[in-house]
Every structure is written in C-alpha cells, then in structure tokens.
C-alpha cells in the first residue's frame, strides 16, 4: 500500500508515489544537470556530506564518484532502495537528529521552499544541527522567475520534457505548482506547494536557525553556501 500524499500534494503515473507527490520512476530517469559541479566547487575535496532529500541518488552517485563520502536521507524507502554506495537513513528530514556533525549539509531540490513554514524551520534547524562548527550548508533556492515564467518547459537531450504547467496562489503566500514529466514511453505529473522567499525572507529564515549566508554560489542566487552564525574563517 502506497503512503498517502500530504494535503495539497499529488502525483500521477506508474510506480510508487511519495507523500509529497514525487513519482519514484521519474527520479530514476531524471538527468544529472550542473548540481555536482556547483557542489564540488563549493566544498572541500573528500568532504563528508549529509544529503537531505537524496531521493534515488541522482546527485548522491555523482558525488560518490568524485570522492566524497555521503550519508543520504529521505523519507521514502522506495527512493532510498535505489541508492548505492552511501549510508542511508529513512525518515522525515525536519525530525532528523543523528547525533553527529558533517563537513557539508546539502539541502537541494528547492526543499527550503516547502509550503509549510514550520516544516521549513525544521529543515533549517536540521541543517544547523548537523553542520560542523567549521562546516557549511549548501541550499538550492528557486530562481527569481519560478512562479512568473509559467507555463514553461525544458527539453533535455535525455528524452525528458519537463513542463511547469501552472503556479497558482492558494493563500498565506503559498503557491500550488503543477509539473509534468514527459518521456517517450510515459507521462507523470506532480502537484506540490511552494512558498516563494525573497532574499531578505530567506536570510531571515537562515538566521532563525542559527545560520548566515557565506556566499551566493551562482549568478541567479539559486545556490547558497551558509555557515553557522558563529563561524569565522581561519
């Protein structure tokens, strides 16, 4: 029996669907874009990375190939059973407490934009709790036109056409976003909740968890390196 999706989240298509509407089959097919390059350039070689929301290992596996050690966390056992070569932990990210710290904590997949503000606070507290005193947290943010350049599509050489079909306000600053993943042999959809965050709102959220921005890693500010507020360079 598949887990129930959360209120406001839904997914369609063949195979298992996670509580936030992700189709496991889609994530096994998604190509790797520039995420491993961005991460590698921002952290020490050979770092131990805690990857929050690893899914099937789309980013985990390239990081392992580059010599990093990875502990992969996801709430979906169907996702985690596809991960190879990393220690895996199954459970909600916002409740995670492993009792250890890491060189790097990675919060990708726009998870910081979850529609539930309390969950976001939990995610960032988890990041801060697991970052070493001299470590860092890498966070992936939505682009500035994520909710205005709609509908839009991205056609990838792998055969995927990714469409953002709609982004509709549903109250309290939250949008309901509908995405479609089309491959030559099938179509999957996902509906999820996203809360746009201005740079000021994002930095305030970091501060509330005891973190601060160390650097914006990309020109569009979608990738951020944060550090514990008390951290100072050597």
Number of helices: 6
Number of strands: 12
Structural class: alpha/beta
Give the overall form: globular
Shape-level CATH architecture of the domain at 32-144 and 197-228: 3-Layer(aba) Sandwich
Ends apart, CA distance between termini: 52 Å
Pick out the low-confidence regions.
none
CATH class categorisation of the domain at 32-144 and 197-228: Alpha Beta
Topology pattern, helix = H, strand = E: EHHEHEHEEHEEEEEHEE
Helix content: 10-25%
CATH superfamily of the domain at 32-144 and 197-228: Vaccinia Virus protein VP39
Strand order of the largest sheet: 4-3-2-5-6-12-11
Query: How would a textbook summarize the main sheet?
Result: 7 strands, mixed
| Average pLDDT metric | 96
Strand content: 25-35%
CATH topology of the domain at 32-144 and 197-228: Rossmann fold
Radius of gyration: 17 Å
Explain how this protein is built.
The protein is of the alpha/beta class and 234 residues long. It has a domain at 32-144 and 197-228: 3-Layer(aba) Sandwich (Rossmann fold), CATH 3.40.50.150. The chain has six helices and twelve strands. The chain has helices spanning 24-29, 35-42, 60-65, 77-80, 117-130, 199-208; strands spanning 10-12, 48-52, 69-74, 87-90, 102-107, 131-140, 152-155, 161-171, 174-183, 186-194, 211-216, 223-228. It has a seven-stranded mixed β-sheet, with helices on both faces. Strands 1-10-9-8-7 form a five-stranded antiparallel β-sheet, with no helix packed on it. The longest helix has 14 residues, at 117-130. The radius of gyration is 17 Å and the shape is globular. The mean pLDDT is 96.
């Amino acid at each position: 029996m598949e887990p129930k999706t959360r209120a406001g989240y839904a997914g369609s298509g063949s195979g298992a669907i996670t509580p936030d509407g992700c189709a496991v089959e889609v994530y096994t097919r998604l190509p790797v874009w520039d995420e491993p390059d961005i991460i590698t350039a921002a952290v020490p070689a050979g770092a131990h990375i805690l990857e929050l929301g690893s899914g099937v290992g789309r980013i985990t596996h390239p990081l392992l190939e580059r010599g990093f050690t990875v502990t992969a966390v996801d709430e979906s056992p169907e996702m985690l059973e596809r991960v190879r070569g990393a220690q895996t932990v199954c459970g909600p990210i916002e409740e995670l407490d492993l009792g250890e710290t890491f060189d790097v904590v990675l919060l990708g997949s726009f998870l910081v934009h979850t529609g539930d503000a309390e969950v976001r606070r939990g995610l960032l507290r988890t990041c801060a709790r697991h970052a070493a005193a001299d470590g860092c947290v890498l966070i992936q943010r939505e682009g500035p036109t994520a909710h205005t350049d709609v509908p839009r599509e991205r056609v990838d050489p792998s055969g995927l056409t990714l469409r953002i079909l709609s982004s509709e306000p549903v109250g309290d600053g939250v949008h309901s976003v509908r995405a479609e993943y089309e491959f030559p042999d099938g179509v999957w959809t996902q509906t999820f909740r996203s809360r746009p965050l201005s740079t000021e709102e994002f930095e305030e959220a970091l501060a509330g968890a005891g973190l601060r921005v160390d650097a914006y890693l990309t020109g569009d500010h979608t990738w951020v390196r944060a550090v514990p507020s008390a951290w100072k360079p050597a």
